[in-house]
Amino acid sequence: MRLAAGAAGLAAAALFLIGGAVGGASTPPRHVTVHAGDTLWSIAEATYGDSDVQARVVQLETANHLTSPALSPGEVLILPGP
């Protein structure tokens, strides 16, 4: 009886851990490489379309820990999810 209870507990724990790993997994962040002439505004507009571009610029600044709107070609930015 004790063995069955232990096996059931172990199975429940395994399902919990697997479910958390799979169910709780989020999509990996997307990235964009900055090209000459790109701005945070143009990247936000191209990436997010018709959404609130100003709010998306703020999200880009926050996600990338930017202290200035200046971008350098070749810089890789994280694109926050929807």
Structure overview:
The radius of gyration is 21 Å and the shape is globular. The chain is 51% helix and 10% strand. The chain has one domain: Membrane-bound Lytic Murein Transglycosylase D, Chain A. Mean pLDDT is 79; it is low at 2-21. It starts with a helix and ends with a strand. With 82 residues, the protein is mainly alpha-helical. It has helices at residues 2-23, 40-48, 53-63; strands at residues 30-33, 76-79. The protein has a two-stranded antiparallel sheet with strand order 1-2. The longest helix has 22 residues, at 2-23.
Give, in order, the helices and strands: HEHHE
CATH class, please? Alpha Beta
Arithmetic mean pLDDT: 79
Largest sheet: 2 strands, antiparallel
Can you name the CATH architecture? Roll
When the domains are counted, the total is 1
Radius of gyration: 21 Å
Key traits:
82 residues; mainly alpha; Membrane-bound Lytic Murein Transglycosylase D, Chain A; two-stranded antiparallel sheet; 3 helices; 2 strands; 51% helix
Quick structural overview:
The protein is built from three helices and two strands; from the N terminus they run αβααβ. By secondary structure, the chain is mainly alpha-helical.
SSE inventory with pairings:
Layout: H1 2-23, E1 30-33, H2 40-48, H3 53-63, E2 76-79
Antiparallel strand pairs: 1-2
Helix pairs in contact: 2-3
